[in-house]
Design goal:
The complex is a heterodimer of chains A (200) and B (607).
Chain A: H1 24-37, H2 58-61, H3 72-80, E1 102-106, E2 117-123, H4 133-147, E3 152-158, H5 166-174, H6 176-182, H7 186-196
Parallel strand pairs in A: 2-3
Antiparallel strand pairs in A: 1-2
Helix pairs in contact in A: 4-5, 4-7
Chain B: E1 23-28, E2 38-43, E3 51-56, E4 61-65, E5 71-75, E6 83-88, E7 108-113, E8 118-123, H1 126-139, E9 190-196, E10 203-208, E11 217-222, E12 227-234, E13 237-244, E14 251-256, E15 260-261, E16 303-307, E17 317-322, E18 325-330, E19 335-340, E20 347-353, E21 360-365, E22 374-375, H2 383-396, E23 401-405, E24 410-416, H3 419-427, E25 456-462, E26 471-476, E27 483-487, E28 492-499, H4 502-505, E29 539-540, E30 543-551, E31 560-567, E32 579-585, E33 590-594, H5 597-604
Antiparallel strand pairs in B: 1-33, 2-3, 3-4, 4-5, 6-7, 7-8, 8-9, 10-11, 11-12, 12-13, 14-18, 15-17, 16-17, 18-19, 19-20, 21-23, 22-29, 23-24, 24-25, 26-27, 27-28, 28-30, 31-32, 32-33
Classes of the chains: A alpha+beta (200), B mainly beta (607).
Region (Disordered) (chain B): 1-52, 138-171, 265-314
Biased composition (Polar residues) (chain B): 26-41, 146-164
Protein name (chain B): Probable cytosolic iron-sulfur protein assembly protein 1
């Protein structure tokens, strides 16, 4: 466990992970979409942090989007398949992300007419001093911002009490400008690309 | 340092539903092929050059016309990463038509990028530029006969990226063309003049100093926690004169104190009446005259400089409250103030404001004197005395700061003079003799008096809270005094400082902690400019901030990264000097907004 790395993490059995059986047609649509969401997006070299407002976003291409609003399970499916940068294991299996730690709330509760929604994801690093917590959080934020329609605001934070420098990490993850700038960094880019390799 | 500021759980905002909406005037579509974030848009400071520059994440800068909203050019190839920030060099406002023979000022743009570099660009296309100015003059509302220019047709500019323009047919006798320039450079519409390198990481904000400073300065800031000050020692030759590194987090914004024009750029009406209508309406765009001569700012306290147009003595403009002072906001949650204390290049931090509970995204200086604050109801009736009161008020006027933050607040800050400074000021009131002498400043043991260069800044007001996500930008209109803010919630809000009516203002604000969401502290703890401060030879109304207009989902579902005021330049403007709001969003577009009719008229008449 030196250098903030966890050599022997607890791994959940894939069959224990939360899933949902969906209508075959919807499921099909969704997996086909996931391919188009695979990182990096075509526009990546120009603007690593561009929001996808095009048909690649789930909601707009789903014909029955109104019937099926995006829920926490769907958010979970988007990020649980990402892999840990230091293990070839998914974030779901490592319980870095878990369904109960995902919330979707109205962004502006005092204005019911607004369709903005905030997705909050609390991540649980495998160990208290995990040196890669910021990178994992960054990857989760990027994955969601790339995949979700622009009306979603994404907040990724470290779950309370699970990391020694959580405040510092949280502040960085909340800073849109730092996130945008970080994605120009080739080292970080390759980290994130690796994390997204396991996403279909 | 709260890492995760409470997001939505704020209480409802009582002022928002009733505030009238802004009207969308124009959408400037980003020419990028796909969605690409735009970070910031800045109008040229001279309304006679109605250009708007937009910084784009796709490494380019778009230049728009604020006259017809067309895309004039796109600057590519200068930066290797996103352009985060743009700034125009301010040479002062151009002369009115009668002084067309005066030398022409270049159009200079600065760009700051995530590639850690700052670029300085000069609009290279003399002919196009000259014709642009001619059109401006023609449009300018009959400020003189349009002189038909005849002359030899100019050289062709075959490779400019200019759109829809017959450049070669342009004729101008008035403009000298620099024939010594390298012919290759002629091909570039925007000449890359200078590359400033040095900071270790992304540039977040840049700003050129105001034209009346004693030197041409440029402030830049970066994620490496530093603020750099550069001086243009020779034309197009910049030197680093200071690297300021007291911030403990990346520095998000820089802003130079520019003071305000006496009368806020409007013509002064003799014998001011009661209320706020001390100044009449401006009669045109070109009533503001400034020269490049600079003033000597006093080393401590507000300096005042006079800018006289020698062609027309009646249009003298005076800058009040200007100091060569830089404000910066940071990821470390603080605002810092910097000054060259000895005026020998010895820049130090002279003030720290540390009350924000999150990243300070933007900070701007007040550039408008709120004359409505002055209570003239009980002054003697003679004009002489009214003028003297006004003179005292103006002499005391000192710009405040407005800042916005990740903590979701927009706050106004005011400098509090030390007891010694107040005493000095009281003794220097020859006109009214109203200030008591023997002031209490002597009670303070000299050992605990701060060195005179250090400044004490306090919270003056907290604006009504509108935003529920990070507040990314704020701007304080120099013409109307209105404040505008925007943020991640997609809302644009406009605030106005107004008098507290006697009914709700009778009670002094003892408890400045109570802010119920609509009223700031008005006059906060120990407000030097207090309501009935016996030290002052004039009376001030108690003031509060109120939301006067707003628009939700201003960029549809996208976040808004920047908002600012610009002088309206299109043919639909309602009156000379009207201002519009320019907002810049994550989808890459720029939107132009107008105020509701009644509000636009009210603020223009100084009400």
């Amino acid at each position: 466990m030196e250098d903030g790395k966890n050599a022997n993490p607890l791994i959940l059995n894939p069959s224990d992970l939360p899933t949902r059986r969906r209508r075959a047609s919807a499921r099909q649509d969704h997996s086909a979409l996931d391919v188009s969401l695979a990182y990096p997006a075509p526009s990546f070299s120009n603007d690593p942090f561009a929001r996808s407002s095009s048909p690649s976003s789930i909601e707009e291409s789903d014909s029955d989007a109104e019937d099926e609003p995006i829920d926490t399970q769907e958010i979970y499916d988007l990020i649980a398949t990402m892999s840990d940068p230091e293990h070839p294991i998914t974030l779901g299996s490592l319980a870095v992300v878990s369904l109960p730690d995902i919330a979707i709330t109205p962004t502006i509760p005092s204005r019911p007419a607004s369709n903005l929604q905030t997705v909050t994801v609390l991540i649980t690093p495998t160990i208290q001093h995990c040196s890669l917590a910021t990178v994992i959080g960054l990857g989760v934020r990027v994955r969601l911002e790339e995949s979700l329609p622009p009306r979603f605001r994404v907040d990724v934070r470290i779950k309370e009490g699970t990391h020694s420098t959580a405040d510092e990490v949280n502040k960085q993850l909340a800073d849109k400008e730092r996130v945008a700038a970080a994605l120009w960094n080739p080292t970080l880019q390759s980290f994130i690309k690796k994390m997204l390799e396991t996403c279909e | 340092m709260a890492a995760s500021p409470p997001r939505p759980p704020t209480t409802t905002n009582p002022s928002s539903p009733s505030a009238p909406e802004l009207s969308l005037l124009q959408v400037l579509q980003s020419p990028a092929s796909g969605p690409s974030r735009s970070w910031q848009s800045m109008p040229h400071p001279d309304p006679a050059t109605p250009l708007l520059a937009s910084a784009s994440a796709d490494k380019s800068v778009n230049i728009w016309s604020l006259r017809d909203f067309s895309l004039i050019s796109t600057i590519n190839g200068g930066h290797k990463r996103s352009v985060r920030t743009v700034a125009w060099k301010d040479f002062g406002q151009s002369k009115s038509s009668k002084s067309t023979k005066k030398e022409r000022k270049p159009v200079v743009l600065g760009t700051g990028s995530f590639d850690a570099n700052v670029g300085i660009w000069i609009w290279n296309d003399d002919r196009r530029w000259a014709r642009f100015r001619e059109q401006e003059k023609a449009y300018g509302g009959g400020n003189g006969p349009l002189q038909a220019q005849t002359g030899e047709p100019g050289q062709q500019h075959p490779n400019t990226t200019t759109r829809g323009d017959n450049v070669g047919a342009e004729a101008d006798a008035d403009v000298e063309i620099d024939m010594t320039r390298d012919p290759d450079e002629e091909d570039e519409e925007w000449h890359f003049s200078t590359l400033l390198t040095g900071p270790d990481s992304e540039i977040k904000s840049i700003e050129f100093s105001p034209p009346h400073y004693s030197a041409n300065l440029l402030a830049t800031c970066s994620r490496d926690k530093s603020v750099w000050i550069w001086e243009e020692v020779e034309p197009e030759e910049w030197e680093t004169i200071a690297v300021l590194s007291e911030h403990t987090g990346d520095v998000k914004c820089v802003s130079w104190c520019a003071g305000a024009l006496r009368g806020n750029g409007r013509q002064r009406t003799k014998g001011g009446k009661s209320g706020g209508e001390v100044f009449g309406q401006a009669d045109g765009d070109d009533d503001v005259e400034m020269e490049d001569t600079h003033t000597n700012t006093q080393s401590n306290g507000a300096g005042a400089g006079t800018y006289a147009d020698h062609d027309d003595p009646s249009s003298e403009q005076v800058v009040l409250g200007s100091r060569e002072l830089l404000a910066t906001g940071s990821y470390d949650d603080t605002i810092r103030l910097w000054r060259d204390v000895e005026e020998e290049g010895d820049w130090i931090c002279v003030g720290v404001i540390d009350s924000h509970k999150g990243t300070v995204w933007d900070v701007k200086w007040e550039g408008h004197i709120n004359y409505t604050q002055l209570d003239l109801s009980q002054t003697p009736p003679s004009f002489q005395d009214a003028d003297a009161v006004l003179a005292e008020f103006e002499a005391d006027w000192s710009p405040r700061l407005v800042s916005c933050s990740d903590d979701l607040t927009v706050r106004v800050w005011r400098r509090e003079l030390s007891e010694a400074e107040k005493a000095r000021k009281a003794q220097s009131r020859p006109l009214l003799g109203a200030a008591p002498t023997g002031f209490a400043g002597t009670r303070l043991p000299s050992v605990i008096r701060p060195p005179s260069s250090l400044e004490h800044w306090v919270e003056d007001a907290r604006l009504p809270q509108v935003h529920v996500r990070s507040v990314y930008a704020v701007d304080w209109s120099r013409r109307t005094g209105l404040v505008v803010s925007c943020g991640g919630d997609g809302t644009i809000a406009v605030y106005k400082e107004v008098k507290v009516e006697d009914t709700d203002g009778a009670q002094p604000h003892v408890d400045d902690m109570v802010m119920n969401g609509t009223t700031g502290t008005g006059a906060g703890p120990g407000t030097a400019t207090g309501y009935a401060d016996p030290q002052l030879p004039y009376k001030l109304h108690k003031m509060k901030w109120t939301v006067v207009a707003q628009i939700e989902a201003a960029h549809d579902e996208y976040e808004i990264n920047h908002v600012c005021w610009a002088v309206r330049g299109d043919r639909g403007r309602r009156f000379a000097g009207e201002e519009v709001i320019v907002s810049t969003g994550d989808e890459g577009n720029v939107r132009i907004w107008t105020l509701p009719d009644h509000l636009a008229v009210a603020v223009e008449s100084g009400l």
